């Protein structure tokens, strides 16, 4: 019987497919195992299940002498040294299906909240100074008729585009590769260069995967290109944005607002961001719904069963011999 080590406490409802076939170990008294605990236990396990905040590096894999599979509980896999896993013959999987709609849903919610200043109004109404009820004072920005620029038009980007089109927005996008004409037609989307997108879009949403090449892909130069009325949304990964440059742009009104669900050094947030009224902050909550978290566990567990038994499709990140 293959042994599965899950680094975080997950509800058993999502792990039913493993019952009776796999020996599963996961935390029961606390929310997660520490890195030291994982290092101590991993030599006995064939499967490791980390999540997006647990970095699975060479040390973990060297200790895991029996490791055959890393079944990531997340769609992004920058928390795993995939190149080293491939060298070691360890398969890596992720969960793109269960994370697609909730992340796009949250991204659009952040877009709407930032543009229409929803969280700002709520916060100010609860504060001693209150908020102006004047006709023009502290007004937000419309969504309808505006241009949304999507950086990374993959599964999540396309799901975001669907919501935006339904709200009357125009779509431009930048991708590593241009999409098919058929997909573009679905969203009436126009492919543009990154600089064109940044200088044209009223709302800019970062939905690309995190790689070595995309670190700080949004920095001072890119923020300077954006409109002073632009709203920036990031539900991808924090390290893709130079947070200090973003804080500077927000403080000096180089852009109008931002909404962030991810940060460079999670769970640490750059202190300056906490003081700014024109930024919305969320705790990596794009998939944090009861339904989504259950579906994520089911998809992760099915990757394990599919890998060993072939009874479910497997979302492979790498190819091993």
Question: Can you walk through the features of this model?
Answer:
The protein is α/β, with parallel strands linked by helices and 321 residues long. It has two domains: 2-94 and 289-309, NAD(P)-binding Rossmann-like Domain (Rossmann fold, 3-Layer(aba) Sandwich); 100-281, 3-Layer(aba) Sandwich (Rossmann fold). 35% of the residues lie in helices and 14% in strands. It contains twelve helices and twelve strands. It has helices at 35-41, 58-63, 82-87, 96-115, 118-126, 155-166, 181-187, 194-200, 220-225, 243-251, 271-274, 290-309, and strands spanning 2-6, 22-25, 47-49, 69-71, 91-93, 147-151, 170-174, 189-191, 203-206, 231-234, 257-260, 279-281. The strands form two sheets. It has a seven-stranded parallel β-sheet, with helices on both faces. Helix 2 (58-63) links the parallel strand 3 (47-49) and strand 4. Helix 4 packs across helix 6 and helix 4 (96-115) runs antiparallel to helix 12 (290-309). The two termini are 22 Å apart. The relative contact order is 0.14.
């Amino acid at each position: 019987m293959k042994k599965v080590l899950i680094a975080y406490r997950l509800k058993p409802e999502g792990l039913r497919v493993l019952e009776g076939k796999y020996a599963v170990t996961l935390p029961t008294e606390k929310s997660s195992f520490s890195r030291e605990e994982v290092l101590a236990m991993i030599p006995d396990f064939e499967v490791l299940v980390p999540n997006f905040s647990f970095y699975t590096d060479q040390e973990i894999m060297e200790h895991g002498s029996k490791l055959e599979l890393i079944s990531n509980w997340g769609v992004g896999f920058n928390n795993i040294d995939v190149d080293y896993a491939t060298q070691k013959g360890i398969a890596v999987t992720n969960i793109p299906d269960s994370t697609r709609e909730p992340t796009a849903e949250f991204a659009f919610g952040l877009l709407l909240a930032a543009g229409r200043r929803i969280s700002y109004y709520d916060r100010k109404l609860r504060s001693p100074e209150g908020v102006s009820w004047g006709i023009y004072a502290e007004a937000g920005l419309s969504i309808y008729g505006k241009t949304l620029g999507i950086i990374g038009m993959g599964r999540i980007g396309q799901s975001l585009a669907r919501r935006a089109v339904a709200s009357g927005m125009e779509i431009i996008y930048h991708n590593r590769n241009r999409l098919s004409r058929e997909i573009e037609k679905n969203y009436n989307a126009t492919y543009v260069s990154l600089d064109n997108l940044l200088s044209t879009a009223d709302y800019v949403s970062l939905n690309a995967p995190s790689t070595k090449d995309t670190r700080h892909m949004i920095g001072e130069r890119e923020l300077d290109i954006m409109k002073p009325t632009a709203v920036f949304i990031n539900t991808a990964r924090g390290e893709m944005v130079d947070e200090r440059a973003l804080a500077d742009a927000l403080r000096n009104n180089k852009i109008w607002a931002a909404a962030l669900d991810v940060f460079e050094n999670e769970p640490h947030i750059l202190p300056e961001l906490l003081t700014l009224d024109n930024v919305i902050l969320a705790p990596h909550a794009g998939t944090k719904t009861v339904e989504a978290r259950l579906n994520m566990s089911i998809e992760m567990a099915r990757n394990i069963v599919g890998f060993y038994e072939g009874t479910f499709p497997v979302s492979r990140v790498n190819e091993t011999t």
